[in-house]
What does this fold into?
Amino acid sequence: MQPSRCKFIKGLLAGSSAVVLGFDPAHRSWTTSAAASGAISIPHLDGVLLTDAASLQTYSDDFGNFIRRTPRAVLLPASVEDVVKAIRFCRQHRIKVVARGQGHSSGGQTLIQGGLVIDVSTLNQIEEIGPTSATVQAGVRLSELLAASIPQGYRPRVVTGVVGLTWGGVLSMGGIGPASYRHGAVVDNVIEIDVVTGRGELKTCSDKKNPLLFSAVIGGIGQYGVIVRAKVKMQAGPPLARNYLIGYGDLDAMLADASTLTSNQRVDGAYMRILPDGNGGWIYAINAVKFYSPSAPPDDAQVLAGLNFPPPALTVLDMDAYSFDTFADNFFESLKTQGLYDIPHVWGDLFLPGSKLSAFVKATLQTLTPADLGPDGGFVLLFEVKNMFPETIAFRLPREEKVFLFDILTSGSFSDTNYVPGHLAAARALFERARAIGGTLYPIGSTPMSKSDWIRQYGPFYPVLALAKTLFDPDRILTPGVDIF
It folds into this structure.
């Protein structure tokens, strides 16, 4: 454990007026009295088990802010063994469990009613950094690994657009970022993970060792085990970044230039945004980055050769690499200062086949207005993703070599009672349109899904995943809110 986390946990223990000593199975509640009638003593934990109302309230919602599920307890583990003990105890006493990193998903994925939340963010030790790999505990944020590795000349091959997320959370979902056009998703760049299964067994797995568990857990939405440690691929990471911001008035021109930039790998990362222009229309923009060292700056003419943008629409910004990586995180921090973070957010997140992208986006924008995006400056995001066609079975992409993550990021207000149901219906309709052309769901968002939807999402792999659920979480205590099984 890093010293700050140890101090944090010890402070909680010292300041606690009531220490949880047992579990009352009759009332399905935790107790501070070991002598309470019928109470079962809990195992010794190195960390902290919180049951006070304020803590439970903190863990009862997520970034979506429209679903509320209140747990009965929250575990801040100080060791991997804490996670093992907690899951074994919960399995024995039929207590539901969900792991949580930063709670950045928006559809209740990390919420649980009446069960145990395991906050993995307290497992935040960076164990090793090298030129080809790094080993981190699940609670390490991607930003923390970047901050530690860039000064050493290395960086993860792929990081997400928001890097304030934990490695455990990202690997449970998939992980898409600017470098995904070259290297696929974050889960395509993990070498090995340590997982505590729903049986309470700690297992190391990879594509060679315990391959079924490995391929089910990465991108598996917490259904089969809790990731507690990961070994991820690293590469050279120069300290500086040149950010090319290119604006367009036309979707197809933007898509064509983005393809030019990515097809010959002129840049190290790229993504696209569609933003309101202030007059009821849209601005189309590419953000592309080239990382470099002070002695070898990028050749702008070579990077930008053959693009279709008009010169006034180009802005070139030099910054340190970490500032580029944390650009989106700074946006979310600004929302907090404006009071726009803790408002409802309905996000629609899809993977689209590259061959159908332009027509799908155009049709969507015909029915979407800038006002639909809400008060916090919402926008539409596009990330190109190289489909690595991995052996993983839980992370499903359209069956084309080039696919795109398509995100519609909206927000509303608590006073607008129509916002959540209306936008959930719109997200659902968008998903059905995408599925009809071979698209799949990226399950970080808000789109409502049924068991039959998941069966269609996984196709022939659903029976394999059902087998994995039986093998690794036979009592089905893990992450019940997603409704896959």
